Amino acid sequence: MTVHPKVSPASDPTKSDHVVPRARVPEDRVVPEATVARLAVYLRVLGEVAATGSETVSSEDLASAAGVNSAKLRKDLSYIGSNGTRGVGYEVSRLMRQIERVLGLTQRHAVAVVGVGNLGHALAGYSGFSGRGFPLCALFDVDPDLVGIRVNGIVVEHTDRIGEVCAQRGVTIGVIATPGAAAQSVCDQLVAAGVRSILNFAPVVLQVPEQVEVRKVDLAVEMQILSFHVARRHGEFAARNGSAVPARAVGPR
Amino acid sequence: MTVHPKVSPASDPTKSDHVVPRARVPEDRVVPEATVARLAVYLRVLGEVAATGSETVSSEDLASAAGVNSAKLRKDLSYIGSNGTRGVGYEVSRLMRQIERVLGLTQRHAVAVVGVGNLGHALAGYSGFSGRGFPLCALFDVDPDLVGIRVNGIVVEHTDRIGEVCAQRGVTIGVIATPGAAAQSVCDQLVAAGVRSILNFAPVVLQVPEQVEVRKVDLAVEMQILSFHVARRHGEFAARNGSAVPARAVGPR
DNA sequence: ACCTGTGAAGATTTTCACAGCA
DNA sequence: TGCTGTGAAAATCTTCACAGGT
């Protein structure tokens, strides 16, 4: 079941020296997963800052615009070897380039979307896709009525041709927007075609080889998490006095 | 000079005492945030198990279907005071009810979707919405061509009426599917209307009072995270000893 | 024999707080 | 003075490993 690559409980928790020499790539720093997710957010916020004409930002301002605290932001940026200037802040354009480089946005990633229903359509039309280094290169569906039509300039192919078309067009990222029942099979085909990164919108837990990175976006899960918090809010107070909603500390603006 | 347009973000000065109130269940048990997200997944998988006719599952089987390891699953379930039977496993229907109760799915949560573009349409048509205890009760848009039309049985209202309509229909969860530029303003209106849970699809970091729970779904961020992993695979470990691929297993979230 | 529930260890992430530089 | 970069502490989350019930 669980694969156990390493067994030895490792060594002394003296983190100061990275004992295991990683490959000799320039800027080889370990970027925590949690940090990666936030870097993308910082990048967008930096874009907004740049649009205002500011050439520098402080960690404080950037953090508050990104909704995190400034210590976290500084630590995140320190992982990517960034340097701002003490007493001044970060140079916006330089920092943007740095984050883009770390996120691999200096290369383009050809994207295929499988499933051209409501959601697939919306995705295909999403400008942030092609606009931001993720050119949409292929669309697939099983529905004969959809195969052959053109969406956002791309002709919809039959899912049977996933392997062939993805290989041909160098697809590196696959987006699954099919019904749940079809998702695993589609996923298998993408993986067979060499796709190693998948964004899954189908309400299914995909089983993939470990080298494949899957990100899941699940509306039902998000709604249920919100539901939990709604219930919690009511539960904490309602038990005692039966009132619907606890007094609000913040009124309408 | 400062970037933040609005009031306090979900984190800031006032946040010195940042101890997020832990999630509580009537029994005074604490459910970690990370666990809450997985409970929703377990619930779906349990549904699939139930469909096969099994009346019990082991932590091992359930975990593998949910893509997590069994120790984690058992610990998660222990937080909700669940009990399976040693030597046997968990009773499927009982466990489902328990999770539903903890997630607050025993009550209905009226949902409003703001923004009836491509994505909003897709969301409005999403069956898992109304089907699963989240009745879609209101739709809003600014576009005069959309206001008044009926989508999935719901008449689209103008966003000016968010406050009025949400209050009237008892909306507790708001979904923002507008362009980024409109999102903050829409959010403010939802909050003013008493909505305390928001699912945000707009590529913006919303600034909200701290009692409001915001979940963000951000396609660009997801793509960029995948991009990072693509780049890492190709870059760093390329020529390390010939053995297995160094990529570490990364579970969903 | 099998499988849950959980204390404790380990790993990761967040926050604090301050040294040090422009 | 103002703000970054970062050790170190704290908090959170994951995994181990086994006691204990069936």
How would you portray this structure in words?
The structure is a homodimer of 253-residue chains. The first copy, chain A, folds into 2 domains: 33-102, Arc Repressor Mutant, subunit A, CATH 1.10.10.10; 111-219, NAD(P)-binding Rossmann-like Domain (Rossmann fold). In chain A, 42% of the residues lie in helices and 13% in strands. Chain A has helices at residues 33-52, 59-66, 70-79, 92-102, 118-124, 127-131, 162-169, 180-192, 219-241, and strands at residues 56-57, 90-91, 111-114, 136-141, 150-151, 154-158, 173-176, 197-200, 213-216. In chain A, the strands form 2 sheets. In chain A, strands 5-6-4-3-7-8-9 form a 7-stranded mixed β-sheet, sandwiched between helices. In chain A, strands 1-2 form a two-stranded antiparallel sheet. In chain A, strand 7, helix 8 (180-192) and strand 8 (197-200) form a beta-alpha-beta unit. The longest helix of chain A is centred in the last third of the chain and has 23 residues, at 219-241. At the A-B interface, helix 1, helix 2, helix 5, strand 8 and strand 9 of A face strand 1, helix 1, helix 2, helix 5 and helix 8 of B. The first copy, chain A, binds a DNA duplex (22 and 22 nucleotides) through helix 1 and helix 3.
Q: Could you report the average pLDDT of chain A, rounded to the nearest whole number?
A: 84
Percent range of helical residues of chain A: 40-55%
Based on the structure, what is the oligomeric state of the protein chains? homodimer
Beta-strand content estimate of chain A: 5-15%
Number of strands of chain A: 9
Shape of chain A: globular
Largest sheet entry of chain A: 7 strands, mixed
Q: Taking Cα atoms only, what radius of gyration of chain A do you get, to the nearest Å?
A: 23 Å
Pair of chains with the largest interface and how many residues each contributes: A-B, 93 and 100 residues
> Could you say what the CATH architecture of the largest domain in chain A is?
3-Layer(aba) Sandwich
Strand order of the largest sheet of chain A: 5-6-4-3-7-8-9
